[in-house]
Amino acid sequence: xxxYKYRAINKYSLETLEHDTVYFSQYTDFNDPFELxxxxxxxxxxxxxxxxxxxxxxxxxxxxxxxxxxxKNICERIVKNGxxxxxxxxxxxxxxxxxxxIYSLSKVxxxxxxxxxYADNHRGFCIGFENLHLNTAPQVKLLxxxxxxxxxxxxxxTIIINYYVNVFxxxxxxxxxxxxxxxxxxxxxxxxxxxxxxxxSVLTDKYEKWAYEQEIRLxxxxxxxxxxxxxxxxxxxxxxxxxxQQEINKIIDICKKxxxxxxxxxxxxxxxxxxxxxxxxxxx
Length: 284
Prior knowledge:
The protein is α+β, with helices and mostly antiparallel strands. It has one domain (2-281). The protein has helices spanning 11-19, 43-59, 65-81, 84-99, 112-118, 158-170, 176-204, 245-257; strands at 2-7, 21-24, 101-106, 125-130, 136-137, 141-144, 146-148, 205-207, 215-220, 225-229, 234-239, 264-270, 277-281. The strands form 4 sheets. It has a 5-stranded mixed β-sheet, with helices on one face. A 3-stranded antiparallel β-sheet has the order 2-10-5. The relative contact order is 0.21.
């Protein structure tokens, strides 16, 4: 998978070419103050909504009277007292987010606004990486950005209700030993899905007006800062409409000196009839 990084030409962007490093930022460094703002689950709200769903399901004959009352009591206790263990988990997640490093890339190298906003008004350049997430040391995760008008509802009780329906309806015919085994297995699966849903949403929810960026994110949950990468994954460099020849020659020379002869070079040009960039190969 090829993904692109738009850059102005400066000391820091040239260091990427010279030293094979990229900088993973903290989310607090991003230009959008809504980054990583998706609210964590509100347990009182979630289990209050779950309790309402239980009423509907019980009326439809899904639960026995005893199971229904037990589940209602569980929901009421959590609404009233919360869940200290889950609160601890959420606190740890927030602390982890503060240390997480993020490197943003785009799926395209011909977006006019990206050249304007991130490549010095078309005077910069755009690096094409192939599977950069697999070529950093250590490797990192790759996640596509999820463009939305509202935050993901992490207080949605659907995952809880599905668990209750399976355990207290779909599995009730099973022998006790098998029932317990299935219940424990499902509880672990639900926890994993819930953790993944929360983590991915917080890391990738973004206001839909940013969709032109076609962003993907490399995520290092260990820390932010400089990461070394294998230079072989750097496949192309595209120069902007306004990149002057002196800067073009400088970048090509750096690539030659650092043994990156495999890189292919391109130049962005205006389309004659549309608001569009054409990417043309340079004959080096």
